[in-house]
Design a protein that fits this description.
By secondary structure, the chain is an all-alpha fold. It has one domain. The protein contains 5 helices and no strands. Helix 4 runs antiparallel to helix 5.
């Protein structure tokens, strides 16, 4: 399982880098790859933390391009962040929710 986590984490990292560079298509492909790997693994904290980060990064990337399609990723990312109690994931989730409240 360790290689699967490393591969998923690398896809997440690449997705974030491509999103910052403005290549949303490659970023979303990387997030989809990470999600595919993680969903195939049995539930456990490491997987759930990576799922939280991936869903939240996916949401943030979709927001950058003005897409409303990211609501499911926001919901899942926040849910995983709350259940894992990962401090960084929770901070990112709170930032995403705060930004959403500012828009509403």
């Amino acid at each position: 399982m360790r290689p699967a986590y490393l591969t998923a984490a690398r896809s997440l990292q690449l997705g974030r880098e491509w999103a910052v560079e403005g290549d949303q298509d490659r970023a979303t492909e990387a997030y989809e790859e990470a999600l595919g790997i993680l969903r195939a693994l049995p539930p456990e904290r490491t997987r759930d933390v990576l799922l939280a980060h991936t869903h939240l990064a996916y949401y943030q990337t979709l927001v950058l391009v003005g897409s409303q399609a990211g609501q499911e990723h926001l919901h899942l990312g926040v849910s995983y962040a709350r259940s894992t109690r990962d401090p960084l994931a929770r901070a990112i989730a709170q930032e995403c929710l705060s930004g959403l409240e500012a828009v509403l």
